[in-house]
Structures are given as C-alpha cells and as structure tokens.
Design a protein that fits this description.
The chain has 8 helices and 8 strands. By secondary structure, the chain is α/β, with parallel strands linked by helices. Bound molecules: D-xylitol-5-phosphate (DX5) and zinc ion.
Length: 213
C-alpha cells in the first residue's frame, strides 16, 4: 500500500520537524492539495511551497489539482517539481481529457484523473488507458478532516475490476477521511494508494502512516 500524507493538514508552525518525520516514516509519496477557491471553496498553496518541499523531501510529489484550469496550473506545478499531476474530470471538457493526459506525459510526468463523490465511476471507463492513476474522492473536495463516504467503496471495486479486466497498469488512489479502519476497507476494495491528512498529522506521523501500510 502506498501512503501519501496530505500536507494540507501539516502543522505549518512546525514545518521542519514535520517534514523530517515524514521523511523518516513509511510514507512514499506526499500529497499536495492545490485549491483555487473556485473549483472548491478553499484556497491553498502555490508552486513555491511545492518547490520548498522538493528541497526538503525526496518523497514522490503527488499533486492533486482542485482547480478550474488544470491545464494552466498543471504546467506550473510540473515545472515546480510535481511527479504526478491529478486533475478533476469535472473541471475539463471531455474532449480535452486525453489531450491533457498526453501533455502531462510529454513533460515526463505521470497523469491522474479524479472524480468527486457525486460523479459516477463509469465516466472514467473510456479514459482509463490514458492514465497512470485514478483518484476516488471519498469526501467532498475542499477541506481536510471530513468523514469518509462509504459509497466510495463500490467505485473502488468497479474501477479495480475494469482496470484488471483490461490488463491496465492504473493505480487507484483514495482521498478523504482515511484512517486505519477506512484505509483497510479501501485496501480490501482494491485501492493501491491512500491519502491521509488529518489522521496522519493529528497523531504521531510515523505510527499513523505505519497503521495504514
Ligand atoms: C480534500 C483533499 C484531501 C484532504 C484529505 O479536498 O483532497 O486530500 O486533504 O484530508 P483528510 O485525510 O483529513 O480527509
Ligand atoms: Zn487531495
């Protein structure tokens, strides 16, 4: 299981020690929730924060764009050091989805596509061959600390069977309300990557990550 702590919930008053705890933990990725205040009613960080993390952590930079213009911000965050760019299905016209995935790949990065809780997983079926990852939102995007939505499990199971039937190499990432209990449910449903914010940063980082692996 790949664990990707969401730095949205990091204690920024104690950044340095939090990052060294993350680096020493079993986390392999760092999850960056980029929000533009339009696609979701919250505003988070720009590329300079990502650059700072790139200087202080070797962990894989998993950037989750909750923005109205993922093509524009995708380039900005790829240039700032993102390894993976995930954008929302709901933020683009269907006719542009494959082009954007191809553009991300041309820049040597991995491409992910995400769906909100109210969006059916079926919409992603035709696009699976073009992506490295699908991100199932198990909370309404915008804020950390929300409760896991159990309907997400059916989506994970369906995506897992579609991906496996087609013999594709696509990871399933789940994001929102993840703790040891909900993380296990997602793992059993076929998830490969777990994003956790409040559960990791409100507890001992190393132990919380360990409990999710
Ligand atoms: C929500 C973000 C999630 C969030 C997860 O919009 O995409 O990554 O930070 O936070 P928790 O784990 O606290 O639900
Ligand atoms: Zn996220």
């Amino acid at each position: 299981m790949i664990i990707s702590p969401s730095v949205l919930s990091l204690n920024y008053a104690d950044t340095k020690s939090q990052i060294s705890e993350l680096n020493a933990s079993k986390a392999e990725w760092l999850h960056f929730d980029v929000m533009d205040g339009h696609f979701v009613p919250n505003l988070t960080f720009g590329p300079d924060i990502l650059k700072a993390f790139c200087k202080s952590s070797p962990l894989y930079k998993d950037v989750h764009l909750m923005v109205e213009d993922p093509a524009f911000y995708g380039d900005i965050f790829m240039d700032a050091g993102a390894d993976l760019i995930t954008f929302h299905y709901e933020a683009v016209d269907e006719k542009d989805i494959i082009t954007l995935a191809d553009h991300i790949h041309q820049k040597g990065k991995k491409a992910g596509i995400s769906i909100k809780p109210k969006t059916d997983a079926e919409v992603l079926k035709p696009y699976l061959p073009y992506f490295d990852l699908v991100l199932v939102m198990s909370v309404e995007p915008g804020f950390g600390g929300q409760k896991f939505m159990p309907d997400s499990l059916e989506k994970i199971r369906n995506l897992r069977s579609w991906i496996d039937e087609a013999g594709l190499d696509v990871r399933i990432e789940v994001d929102g309300g993840i703790n040891a209990e909900t993380g296990k449910l997602c793992k059993d449903a076929g998830a490969d990557v777990l994003v956790a914010g409040s559960y990791v940063f409100k507890n001992d980082i190393g132990k919380a990550v360990e409990s999710l692996v």
